[in-house]
Amino acid sequence: SSSSSSSQKIYYPSSNGPFFDIAVVDEAAQALEVATWAALLKAPRAVLAGDHLQLPPTVTSEAAAKGGLSRTLFERAMHVYGSRRSEMLTVQYRMNEKIMKWSSDEMYCGRLQAHASVAGHTLESLLAGERE
């Protein structure tokens, strides 16, 4: 496994062949395309994991952004293949369902659900757990 930021270290070894059976790029929707390709070139198969509806990569140069650097390979793949090659994970484990509802309705057509273990979490219940 490799993070996109460390992929350059494995991209320039002495051998030219692939080194992995599969490349898994997590947070691919936030990774610059060049960094993603660096990891993908070392495996014949790949999985891009991420959410193109969340934060994009950080590109500080306006010229680079206008030139397309802010568009990720993940975003490009979603545009070309859409649901034919992607799978949405519909259960989230991070927040109360009332907080989650807006993003579920506005960004994910109401398909996002809160897992029962977090659906009713409140700040009070979380703080009470810390005291125990």
Automatic annotation (TrEMBL):
Family statement: Belongs to the DNA2/NAM7 helicase family.
Protein's recorded name: DNA2/NAM7 helicase helicase domain-containing protein
Highest taxon, organism lineage: Eukaryota
All copies of domain DNA2/NAM7 helicase helicase, residue ranges: 16-62
UniProt-listed InterPro entries: Coronavir_polyprotein_1ab (IPR050534), DNA2/NAM7-like_C (IPR041679), DNA2/NAM7_AAA_11 (IPR041677), P-loop_NTPase (IPR027417)
Organism lineage string: Eukaryota, Viridiplantae, Chlorophyta, core chlorophytes, Chlorophyceae
Record GO terms (molecular function): 5'-3' DNA helicase activity; ATP binding; hydrolase activity
ATP-binding is among the record's keywords: yes
